[in-house]
């Protein structure tokens, strides 16, 4: 099965009868056995099944949910189309079940003025993909951290937030001004929280694994202290600008998540997302372990846990893979709602940029196609309720995007345009260079199989991805 070869992408979904499926509607807070009928791109009927009609239908079969929303992806266009284009990124998104994505502005040139946004939107339209493409504008000119970008113009042009992602918003003064101006427009600042002065030359999470492998340590405190700074600045700004909003992306440490939990309890307007890789992998994977984080201890050299060669550069990512305790905190934050959303930080790279020494490899994991499977592995292990996983891929990010996304209305609702994903929890798929639609094959899951094969993704009533093996008529 080659995802890119799907010929019907962009075509209106004329007719679909999903009978006896498990329907998850996180917007209405409901899930259960149902029949769903789609005609000419619209949801014609939803019938929740009860009594004997519902016999034998469970969460472990075919599941229908609203299309997923990814707050954080890197599609590399313009500037590095060898790693990903808007078209291949959108195909990868659809293969992963996503129908809305937000691209990050660390392209070349950076998305720091409306002209770059126009180019990206033109590329999305030319791709023929019905997946909704949204964008974050840069906080500073060229993402250089020195001069505030034209936030007002970018906001008028339609960006959904501002970020210098790849780097933190370096100066507290700039962060303060950015929160103020973006807040007046009702838009969030999306920060990659990292005290860069504490991570110079850092290679792997500071701790036992880095020490034994001889990799330079990347301290958890670099994230915790940056989050503390961001929250302190936010607290100052909201006194004058109550509409200011801070979103912390890819939070990866127990300490930072605890700060977010307390800030939310104190009523600060802060939200955050976590990634599937920080939830499911640990730094022990860099040593060659391959157990899911919830199955692993802190000692990768315990009997039988080393399954692969160490130093695989597919595992180099920023923030780095953390300890099992941090991964457990990420999972707990997802379950208790401290983390509002799961975002993939999909970061495709060319083979050239990864085929170097671990510490010199480009940071990032190509993850938008494997996100669902990784979350379902946690569901299968009894660590994460299916409905919560779906909620963090739909309702959570939709609330952060607000009215600038066509997804703000929620769904699925009878009479509305169909926007949904259909996946089969009883079927697995193999992660290989050939099955990934992304140009980035840089995932440590290559060669593994994942649960939850995506059969069909429908965005705005049109086919975004269709599994050619399923023979849907
Ligand atoms: Zn980042």
Could you name the key traits of this structure?
473 residues, binds zinc ion, 13 helices, 4-stranded parallel β-sheet, 17 strands, disordered N terminus, 21% strand, 7-stranded mixed β-sheet, alpha/beta, 27% helix
Query: Uncertain runs with pLDDT below 50, 5 residues or more?
Result: 1-6
* Structural category: alpha/beta
Taken as a percent bin, the fraction of beta residues is 15-25%
Report the sheet with the most strands, covering strand number, pairing sense and barrel closure: 7 strands, mixed
Distance between the termini: 17 Å
Count of helix runs: 13
Side by side, the strands of the main sheet go: 3-2-1-4-15-16-17
The portion of residues assigned to helices is 25-40%
Query: H/E order of the elements?
Result: EEEEEHEHEHEHEEHEHEHEHHEHHHHEEE
Using the CA coordinates, give the radius of gyration.
21 Å
Looking at the structure, what is the overall shape? globular
Characterise the protein shown here.
The protein is of the alpha/beta class and 473 residues long. It is 27% helix and 21% strand. It has helices at 86-95, 114-127, 151-157, 172-184, 208-213, 221-240, 254-265, 276-280, 324-336, 351-354, 371-380, 386-392, 395-401; strands at 15-25, 30-39, 42-48, 62-66, 68-73, 98-103, 132-137, 161-162, 188-191, 204-205, 217-218, 245-248, 270-274, 341-342, 420-430, 449-459, 462-466. The strands form four sheets. A seven-stranded mixed β-sheet has the order 3-2-1-4-15-16-17. Strands 5-6-7-8 form a four-stranded parallel β-sheet, with helices on both faces. Helix 4 crosses helix 6 and helix 7 runs parallel beside helix 9 (324-336). Mean pLDDT is 95; it is low at 1-6. The protein binds zinc ion.
